[in-house]
Amino acid sequence: MSKTRPPYPAEFREQIVELARAGRTPAELAREFGCSAQSVTKLDRAGGHRCRQTTARQGRPEQRRARRACSAAPREPAAADGARHPGKGYGLVRRQRREDAHVVFELIMANQADFPIDAMCRALQVSPSGFYGWRDRAPGKRAIDDAVMTERIRAVHAESNATYGMPRVRAELIDQGVAISRKRVARLMRRARIRGVSRRRGFVVTTRRDARSAPAPDLVQRRFSADGPDRLWVADMTYVPTWAGFVFPAVVLDVCDQ
User: Fold this and answer.
1) pLDDT digits over 25-55, tens only?
2) Are 249 and 241 within 8 A, CB to CB?
3) Final residue in a domain of this structure, among 118, 136, 154
4) pLDDT in tens, 205-248
5) CB-based burial of residue 142 (10 Å sphere; 0-12 exposed, 13-18 middle, 19+ buried)?
6) Which strand (E) or helix (H) includes residue 242?
7) Which residue segment(s) compose the domain that 258 sits in?
8) Cα–Cα dist 9/33, whole Å
9) From CA 252, how far away is CA 136, in angstroms rounded?
């Protein structure tokens, strides 16, 4: 009796092709769906081959008409030097460089009460079957591990009074015996919107020189010495950052006393 494996369902094949086109690697899809990377590669190639055949049979007249329309349409002016062309961006609805289709599916899930799912799938260039498969599929091992690690990161962040950032959170997890990379901690914190507190403060300019005014004359000529009291007085001011804001102390000294 032959041990041939039954063919994959059509929705499964369509979802594999959709995720592969979104940038997922065969190894990642194989781990997530419980199949071999070779099977994922074959499904991806088979899906692309069918699409090319359909285009070759049915799309040639449409392509010729589209090319004629594009050649007859006026060209847009070129973008200025350093400016970004509006058609060169790759965002949520750009299929060429989408890294993770789950972000799109989460957006559809969040707005399904306000808009039809089929309309959102057409606008975002994803298949409805892929969305329904993502919604109804049980979370994989990686998703479960990420959820557990996110809770540990959240606990470490809470114990630090919400001050730890990625480096300190990772150091605390390593002290607890967890082997984790910097990129994974950063990805999970970014997804959970967990942020640390930065103690760095920007440079504050306290003197704004007026270019139209002449500088004050140097009456001392950089000679900070005096033969007797009340001959030469010097002053200076600075700023000290505090939790309530900047404090500006000033000092006036008699050079003879120093």
Assistant:
1) 777 777 777 777 777 777 767 765 443 333 4
2) no
3) 136
4) 666 777 788 888 888 888 888 888 888 888 888 888 888 888 88
5) exposed
6) strand 240-242
7) 221-258
8) 13
9) 75
In whole angstroms, what separates CA 66 from the centre of its chain?
36
193-215 confidence digits (pLDDT tens): 999 887 665 556 666 777 788 88
DSSP conformational letter for 231: S
Burial class from Cβ neighbours inside 10 Å (0-12, 13-18, 19+) for residue 126 reads buried
Residue 29 and residue 8 in contact, taking contact as beta carbons nearer than 8 Å = no
> Same domain, yes or no, for 24 and 62?
yes
Q: Which residues have CB under 8 Å from 125's CB, separation 6+? A: 93, 95
Phi and psi at residue 240, to the nearest 5°: -125, 120
- 129-160 confidence digits (pLDDT tens): 888 888 888 878 888 899 999 999 999 999 99
Residues 125, 150 share a domain: no
DSSP 28: H
The H-assigned helical ranges of 95-212 are 101-110, 117-124, 128-136, 141-159, 166-175, 182-192
Burial (Cβ within 10 Å: 0-12, 13-18, ≥19) of residue 165: middle
- What pTM, to 2 d.p., does this model score? 0.38
If pLDDT is split at 50, 70 and 90, which confidence band does 85 have? very low
Locate tokens 């990686």: which residue? 142
Instruction: Provide the token pair at 73.
Output: 């349409």
Distance CA 22, CA 25 (A): 9
Residues in the chain: 258
Asked if residue 120 and residue 31 are part of one domain, the reply reads yes
State the pLDDT at residue 209: 74
Residues 15, 132, single domain; the answer is yes
Same domain as 173, residue 60: no
